[in-house]
Amino acid sequence: MSLLGPNLVIYEEEFDRINSLLARLWVDANAKIVFLVDKNGQQIAAKGDLEKVDATSLASLTAGNVAATDGLARLIGEKEFSILFHEGERDNIHISIIGQRLILVVIFDERSSLGLVRLRVRKTAAEMEEVINQMASKAAEGEAPQSPFAEITDDDIDKLFSE
Q1: Residue 147 has what pLDDT?
Q2: Residue 29 vs residues 53, 106, 119: alpha-carbon distances, Å
């Protein structure tokens, strides 16, 4: 179980679904790396050749890139730019915003194309939004679990430190 922004929790069922969607996107887009990040830069899930990159930095910098681009969008009167693309000599990065909460990142090279990546991301993003909506429904129905510390009382803490 993991927290995903205010009032959203990723249960194992949703996490497995997210991993499955990322794995399919990784294969179908012929990508090197696919990962999902929240807007705070926390990596949620990833698939691909992660040994060659610093995934933590990549997630954090991606979120920063999206935040900076959101600022640019607002300056020109746009709500946001939902898709970003960076082209390099060898590798390319396709970034898309999902449900205004998540960032889907696809890193690919010459073995794929921008058109293929965009097509596959569009399908995956729609399915990912369904998962987010399921999580939001569970939270609205009160299925979100309490903090694991909710059952600990002040007496329990006192006992722990007095022994």
Answers
A1: 56
A2: 19, 9, 8
Residue 75 lies in a domain: yes
CA 70, CA 80: separation in Å to the nearest integer?
Answer: 5
Note the pLDDT tens digit of each residue in 59-89: 999 999 999 999 999 999 998 898 999 999 9
Distance, in Å, from the CA atom of 123 to the CA atom of 117, rounded to the nearest integer, reads 10
Quick check: is 150 in a domain? no
CATH number at residue 101: 3.30.450.30
User: What's the domain range around 74?
Assistant: 2-145
Q: Could you give the number of structural domains in the chain? A: 1
Token pair of 138, please?
């569970």
> Which pTM value belongs to this model?
0.79
